TrEMBL record:
<dbReference type="InterPro" id="IPR009057">
    <property type="entry name" value="Homeodomain-like_sf"/>
</dbReference>
<dbReference type="InterPro" id="IPR036271">
    <property type="entry name" value="Tet_transcr_reg_TetR-rel_C_sf"/>
</dbReference>
<dbReference type="GO" id="GO:0000976">
    <property type="term" value="F:transcription cis-regulatory region binding"/>
</dbReference>
<dbReference type="GO" id="GO:0003700">
    <property type="term" value="F:DNA-binding transcription factor activity"/>
</dbReference>
<protein>
    <submittedName>
        <fullName>TetR/AcrR family transcriptional regulator</fullName>
    </submittedName>
</protein>
<dbReference type="InterPro" id="IPR001647">
    <property type="entry name" value="HTH_TetR"/>
</dbReference>
<dbReference type="InterPro" id="IPR050109">
    <property type="entry name" value="HTH-type_TetR-like_transc_reg"/>
</dbReference>
<feature type="domain" description="HTH tetR-type">
    <location>
        <begin position="33"/>
        <end position="93"/>
    </location>
</feature>
<keyword id="KW-0238">DNA-binding</keyword>
<feature type="DNA-binding region" description="H-T-H motif">
    <location>
        <begin position="56"/>
        <end position="75"/>
    </location>
</feature>
<dbReference type="Pfam" id="PF00440">
    <property type="entry name" value="TetR_N"/>
</dbReference>
Length: 210
């Protein structure tokens, strides 16, 4: 092989290596899950407390204690970071298939609280409604679409098998549960556990097959 061919082969090898951050990680130094958790929780906390406009790599680094380079190695841009932060909140699967309708609705109400209060928070809900941060809106809606898919599938299954009224639309039911939680929070503050049980019972009476 000619000398110039050797140089070109080595140059192409370096280019291919630089393009893969996962391969750059040295053996024996796996990604630390606790670092991931700190980064994502810092992102959610900034959104909850100050709105998504407060989220940038410098702010997340300061809040989480992770170096900026560590964050950049994990997330290619701000939207990817936001998406990952909220996917961890929305991906909880679906309600246990063997539960009663009332228990399934209580499960859905608990997940609504987890997403809207503990995940997105007041600052995030306001930003979703205003649509002023397209990156944030796209990231959260994508996370919700993925996370809620097992829920809508369970609703469709229950409607087809007589657990729910056959007229129930899965997307409408999910929106109803989210709206019920938001309505209670707006009018009376954060709902308590008795409210969840009481509301699940009332919804079950409305949605059960005749």
């Amino acid at each position: 092989m000619r000398y110039t061919d050797c140089i070109e082969t080595r140059r192409q090898g370096r280019i291919g290596h630089v393009g893969n951050a996962e391969n750059d990680r040295r053996p024996g130094r796996p990604r630390r899950s606790e670092t991931d958790s700190r980064i994502l929780e810092a992102t959610r906390a900034l959104v909850r407390e100050h709105g998504p406009e407060a989220v940038n790599i410098a702010a997340v680094s300061a809040r989480s204690g992770a170096a900026r380079t560590t964050i950049y190695r994990r997330y290619v841009d701000r939207q990817a970071l936001l998406g990952a932060a909220f996917e961890t909140v929305t991906r909880r699967g679906g309600p246990p298939p063997g539960d009663s309708l009332e228990d399934k609705l209580a499960w859905l109400l608990a997940r609504a609280e987890e997403v809207l209060r503990d995940g997105i928070g007041a600052g995030g809900v306001a930003a979703l409604l205003s649509g002023e941060d397209p990156d944030f809106v796209a990231a959260v809606r994508r996370a919700l679409a993925v996370g809620l898919q097992p829920v809508t599938e369970q609703v469709a299954h229950d409607a087809a098998n007589g657990v729910l009224s056959g007229d129930v639309d899965p997307d409408t039911l999910v929106n109803l549960v989210l709206g019920v939680y938001l309505g209670e929070a707006l009018r009376h503050g954060a709902p308590d556990l008795p409210w969840r049980a009481r509301t699940a019972k009332q919804l079950a009476a409305l949605l059960a097959p005749e």
